[in-house]
Specification:
With 189 residues, the protein is an alpha/beta fold. 43% of the residues lie in helices and 15% in strands.
């Protein structure tokens, strides 16, 4: 039996062709109950008729969308075992020239989107003393590149959030494993 079999796994950013989509398929192949989410249901339409997936519309930049999606998951399954904060957007250009609105949009998705999920699910996981959170960082947070300053800064924030989350739970005497993925090659929309 696979260690993940029958675990409820919520994955953000599951649009076709991306990392989240591939992760959803992999978790499903291991017997997980996969909640595949995306801003647009059309982007995950290939999963809608597949019984291995519970498909949910979720915009991580919206408090209401996060509350609604997680409430629906808890009503259906009664628990959330794993959250994979995969949703993200790229912002290319010299950071001194990128419009502030584009920087805000990047941070709202990449940083605050992950935080919305973390803050919504941690009380549930802590009460069960069980759960895993996987955050997607980036190697650029460790080795910045020109023209990727906004994206790099947002992913550096994810690394810092992940570290402080881990320390906070260690200090509280609670065990809540958390991981940050820093290096995966992929096409970004």
């Amino acid at each position: 039996m696979d260690v993940y079999e029958k675990q409820v796994v919520v994955i953000t950013g599951c649009s076709a062709g991306g990392i989240g989509h591939a992760l959803a398929r992999e978790f499903a192949s291991r017997g997980c109950l996969v909640v595949a989410t995306a801003r647009s249901l059309a982007s995950i339409s290939d999963m809608q008729d597949d019984p291995r997936f519970f498909v949910q519309e979720l915009d991580v930049s919206s408090d209401e969308s996060v509350r609604h999606a997680l409430s629906t998951v808890l009503e259906r399954f009664g628990r959330i075992d794993v959250v994979v904060n995969n949703a993200g957007v790229q912002c290319v250009g010299p950071i001194a020239e990128v419009p502030l609105s584009a920087i805000e949009q990047t941070f709202n998705t990449n940083v605050f989107g992950s935080l919305r999920l973390i803050q919504a699910v941690v009380p549930h996981m802590a009460s069960r003393k069980k759960g895993k959170i996987v955050n997607f960082g980036s190697v650029t947070a460790l080795a910045p590149l020109p023209w990727a300053g906004t994206y790099t800064a947002s992913k550096a924030a994810i690394h810092a959030i992940s570290d402080t989350l881990r320390y906070a739970f260690n200090d509280l005497g609670k065990h809540l494993p958390e991981n940050v993925v820093a290096h995966v090659m992929c096409q970004m929309p």
